[in-house]
Amino acid sequence: KVKGPQGKRITLKMAKNLIRVNFDGRRRLDLSKMGITTFPKCILELADVEELDLSRNMLKKIPDTIEKFQNLLWLDLHSNQLDELPKTIGTLQNLTFLNVCNNKLTTGSLPEELNLLKNLRNLNLGLNCLDSIPTTLGKLKELTDLGVFDNALTTIPKSVKKLPKLERFNVKRNPLKELTEQEEHVDSIKRIETLYLVQEKDLCSSCLKMCQGERDELHKLEDMTPSFSKKLSFPLLLTPISSAKNNQEEWRVR
Q1: pLDDT reported for residue 25
Q2: Per-residue pLDDT, 2
Q3: How much of the chain is in helix, strand and coil states, percent to nearest 5?
């Protein structure tokens, strides 16, 4: 019978040497990119760390003993081969960051106990095999950043859409019909807003005078530009004529 890869064996001494203290004083155990195939039992002796990075390994399972890490604020498990999460993950009440991106998780393998992580602010479920989002995630009232990109989602629960503190919600590359239509609508608006073209007859006298003054100043600047420079460069200008919209009402008052 062919055995799978054994992976690298982590000893307690090795793990202790991989602990680093962050600038904010947190102790971080970094076991990423170590070729680990099974959760190292020895690190349970270091369960008082605040951050644990097991990303980019070959882990297929996280044991129930993860509950020993009660001080964890930050847990990174991305880019492994996990097809389930233990129910005991819900006991990590101090957790604010959880990344399980790029695994083999399905909707059914997400434990309902995730909704017990009341302090969770950042949750990344992208690049998995989810066909829906559990409505119970709507109980994570502190979430500010939620990633579910590159899954097979067709709908988003209202309870998740209405999370009170959600600032970033990445749902890209999912077969979401409602969001596809919405994105097309928003995109068309953005295209219009990035360019402002008006005719002189549509401007009031004060606005026209102001625009002509700005144009004259620009022409003077062009005349002062050395001959070897063919074009003016505005590397910090992100939106063409962006000041037109921002200052328009001020001009009209004048």
Answers
A1: 94
A2: 40
A3: 35, 10, 55
Do 170 and 126 meet the contact criterion of CB atoms below 8 Å apart?
Answer: yes
| Low-confidence spans in the chain with pLDDT less than 50 | 1-4, 185-196, 228-254
pTM of the predicted protein model: 0.70
The residue type found at 187 is D
Taken as a whole, the chain contains a residue count of 254
Q: Which amino acid is at 177?
A: K
Number of domains in the chain: 1
Tell me, what CATH number does 149's domain have?
A: 3.80.10.10
Q: In whole angstroms, what separates CA 110 from the centre of its chain?
A: 19
pLDDT at 221: 66
Residue 233 maps to a domain: no
Query: Residue 177's pLDDT is what?
Result: 80
Q: Rounded to an integer, what distance in angstroms lies between the CA atom of residue 221 and that of residue 226? A: 10
- What is the domain extent for residue 154? 26-170
- Give a yes or no: residue 119 inside a domain: yes
Q: Is residue 163 part of a domain?
A: yes
Of all helices (H) and strands (E), which one includes residue 165? Answer: none
pLDDT of residue 67: 97
Residue in 33, 37, 46 with CA at minimum distance from that of residue 4: 37
Residue 71 main-chain phi, psi, to 5 deg: -90, -5
With tokens 């957790």, the residue in question is 95
Q: What is the pLDDT of residue 251?
A: 41
